[in-house]
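Onboarding guide, step 5: your first structure request.
Type a short instruction followed by the sequence, for example:

Predict the 3D structure of this protein.
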Amino acid sequence: MPRRREDSKNYLKEGKQTKITPRIKAAGGKVKGEGLESIFNLLTFVRKKARKLDHSSKAYQTYIEEKHIRRTADEIVSDWIAPTCSEVALVFATFCRAKGIPAKMVEGVLNKFLNDPSDKHLRSHVFVEVFLMGKRYLIDPSRGIVGEGKTLQDFISPYAKWELLWEGLDFWEAGIFNHQDLWKRSLQLKKQWKKKR
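The system replies with structure tokens like these:
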């Protein structure tokens, strides 16, 4: 499928969740480097700082119910609790923009979820697409993977291919304000997917 042309400058803008606050500038300012080196340094910085929660713990379940997708990048950086790919990608995209690197958040859903009507577990993942020196890079901030020139559909996972759920500045700009909104959006995509087949 041919890629549509888009103005990468749109992804230097702040979203409501991705405002470039003094805290963001101070934390991101510690990361040095130019060009692609800056991207790798930002990835390393965010992945070292992000604090995970055990996915089987009560604290994780409470986080998903009460805070998942409801916090801004600034709020996440204030305590560095980032237990899912959503928070890690949100902070990474915000730091990229603070450094003048256009960054678009992209969430994909695995075909496995879309193809299996009995699958009740949301199988999605958040990536960040950056535009640097005339090239696109699809980045998986939570795993530290960088793919040059890749689209979401081209990004190989150990499971299957990805289908686009949403893309934009941040979750709130895409109309996703909590975990329930994300689940509803994924079920809508699942219905559309079923009709195509």
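Each response can be followed by summary notes, for example: The CA atoms of residues 103 and 130 lie 4 Å apart.
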